Amino acid sequence: MEAQRLLSGFCSTPPIQNTKTQVFVKFPLSSSSASFAQSQKWVSFKACPSISQSALSGKVFQCRNSRERIEFLASDKEDLRSGIRRKKLAVFVSGGGSNFRSIQEACLRGSIHGDIVVVVTSKQDCGGADYARDKGLPVILFPKTKLEADGISPADLVATLRRFEVDFVLLAGYLKLIPAELIQAYPRSILNIHPSLLPAFGGKGNYGMKVHKAVIASGSRYTGPTIHFVDEHYDTGRILAQRVVPVLAKDTAEELAARVLREEHRIYVEVITALCEDRVIWREDGVPIIRSKENPNEYS
Question: What is the DSSP string of 262-294?
Answer without folding.
Answer: HHHHHHHHHHHHHHHTT-EEE-TTS-EEEB-SS
